[in-house]
Specification:
six-stranded mixed sheet, Purple Acid Phosphatase, chain A, domain 2, about 240 residues, alpha/beta, binds zinc ion
Length: about 240
């Protein structure tokens, strides 16, 4: 079984299309999406349509929940709230209903999936050894998959319970068989924040016992132009060039 794990697409259609083209070259059996299909980016309808058509499992993220009205936008940063309100105005009812039907966690083959973390599947950021250890303590599957931070991560839990690992730049590979159990974040398709502007995804090859962190170039300037044409906050365009 070969699975493509994608997350945090954020309405960035050129990035999503580049990732889908890349994973289509890898003969994957399934696509799992960890949420935040919309928010920040200028193409929420197109991204919802593509993910609905392609993903076998799809979680919702905090931005999806904010856009459908299930989370207060007062808890969002200024530009996130502005983008969520813009998205509410353009999102097709069928996509709003679909986003509203999604859950922020799921179980799958040898894996537990969360948008954010096991202790708070919507908001918690797994960015430290301490939080990663807690996430592994609260789960039991060999593989724990999280998104939300937009930072690709590869963390392994040693037998004594301590965790090791960290950032997972493009090309990073890891075995998957437990022990040790692992927590992986594929990084973000549509708004990477780990200093690499290329779109991120994760190839999980259970039979080959290998996870591979992938990065794909896409037309950043096309997304930036669409953000500006939509009147979304300028900072949302600028950050894409730097992956921050
Ligand atoms: Zn996100």
């Amino acid at each position: 079984m070969r699975v493509a794990v994608i997350s945090d697409i954020h309405g960035n259609l050129p990035a999503l299309e580049a990732v889908l083209a890349d994973l289509d070259g890898e003969r994957v059996d399934a696509i799992w999406c960890l949420g935040d299909i919309v928010g920040y980016g200028p193409a929420p309808n197109e991204c919802c349509a593509l993910v609905r058509a392609r993903a076998d499992i799809c979680l919702c993220g905090n931005h999806d929940l904010g856009v459908v009205g299930a989370l207060e936008l007062a808890t969002f940063t200024g530009e996130a709230a502005a983008a969520a309100r813009w998205t509410q105005g353009v999102l097709a009812p069928e996509h709003r209903d679909w986003l509203g039907s999604l859950k922020p966690r799921a179980n799958a083959d040898r894996s537990e999936l969360f948008h954010a973390s096991p202790r708070d599947p919507v908001w918690d950021y797994v960015l430290s050894d301490q939080v990663a250890a807690e996430a592994l303590r609260l789960t039991s599957a060999p593989l724990v998959l999280v998104g939300h931070s937009h930072v690709a991560l590869c963390v392994a839990q040693a037998d004594e319970g301590s965790v090791g690992g960290g950032l997972a730049p493009g090309g990073t590979e890891t075995p998957l068989a437990a022990p040790p159990r692992r927590l992986l974040n594929p990084g973000s398709v549509g708004q990477p924040r780990d200093g690499d502007p290329h779109a991120a995804w994760l190839l999980v090859d259970f039979d080959g016992d290998r996870g591979t962190f992938r990065r794909v170039p896409y037309d950043v300037e096309a997304t930036q132009a669409a953000i500006r044409a939509a009147g979304l906050p300028e900072v949302l365009a600028r950050r894409l060039a730097h992956g921050l």
